[in-house]
Amino acid sequence: MAKTVELAKTNPTGASGRVAAATALALFAGPALAAGEIPFEKAGGWEIERAARGPACMMSKSYKDPADDNAGNALVFALAGDKVVMTFVYEHWIWDKNEKIRVPLVLDKTTAIAKSAWTGDGQTLTAELPATIVPNLLAAKTMILKLDGADADFNLAGFPQGYESLRRCDSAPAAAVAAAAPPPPAPAPAGASPAAATPSAHVSQAMTFPGDGDVPPQAVFARDTPKILVAVEVRGVKPGDTLTATWVAEKTGAAAPPNFTIASVAIPLGAGPLVSSSVSKPDTGWPPGQYRVDLSHNGGPVEFSQRFAIKE
pLDDT at position 255, please? Predict the structure, then answer.
């Protein structure tokens, strides 16, 4: 699948646009829910959840495309009266914020909408389309946007099952959706430092992962972990701004003093809401102990600290 274009995330309705950044964050290394979203169930490979604000439910699916160097793709779908709202996320897009495009939307080999209107922002495109397209989506295997110079396609496998679950979620009272949500994850093992929860003007959330693979986030790592990556969702920034990620060994059994700075990396901002930084394993392995990543905006004070631990 060739997609050599630019990317976006918009918000024509609060429900589906709000999860675009979280869905894109999941493309870095694993699943991630927007803060406050209420999981409903999984169906046909799709995640169905109730929006944190408002009664709307949404369904989303993400995957790595082996035919495109394992590039991340995601689709978020929600019903809004006589409209549907779709957010299409592709890892290598770089759309200008609020960039407008009109392109053919093709389902399998049939053009469903000759000039579908989409709004870009970073890695996402968002559209509000007539709900009459739903029967065609239910029958299709692939959705394709005919972009200039490249087609952007998405595998719709499991869409009928996901859509059926979405309708159940939309018709269920909010309390029933909350009751159906899985229990919160168990606390991290002893010795692990909790993820930072301090409010920040420029950091919405951050998570640590063992490298770049399609794996869940975690807060405790083995000594031989080849690389540790922090994925960060930013907000309130503009092109030309910089986020500095400072990796710190807070307290280890090694000869290094407490709060030893391992590395400090300046990350340019503005291309999209998601950035990352990583550090590689020392030659002799990670010393067990407590670590953190301090995040600061434009050389200012630390706004957000993401903590993790290396186990014995």
Answer: 65
